[in-house]
Amino acid sequence: MGVALIVVAIIQMQWPIRNTAPHLKKVSGKGILLSISAGVLMSLFYRFVASSMAASFEMPEAGKLTPYSAIFFFAQGSDK
Fold it and tell me: With 0-12 CB in 10 A as exposed, 13-18 as middle and 19+ as buried, what is 43?
């Protein structure tokens, strides 16, 4: 339901821009398709993060991430 509301908000935001600037180039379908596919791929990422986190942060299992170690690995990945 939240995603549908965001899509409706995006569509409504484009109407004033279209009315005030009719000389601008039309939006390509390629960009919209790329945005939608990127959103779907990002939504699938949470399952992997959740399965790598420890169930109990006081006594984490071996090989599982705690909140601090997860932030460390995400920070390392954002440098590249």
Answer: exposed
- Determine contact, residues 54/68, Cβ cutoff 8 Å: no
Q: Which two tokens stand for residue 6?
A: 């965001």
Is the distance from CB of 11 to CB of 35 less than 8 angstroms? no
pLDDT at 37: 92
CB 64 within 8 A of CB 53: yes
- The pLDDT tens digits of the residues spanning 12-42 come to 888 776 666 666 666 678 888 888 899 898 8
Sign of CA dihedral 67, 1, 41, 79: negative
- List of residues 6+ apart from 15 with CB closer than 8 A: none
In the three-class reduction of DSSP (H, G, I as helix; E, B as strand; rest coil), residue 52 is classed as helix
CA 76 to chain centroid: 18
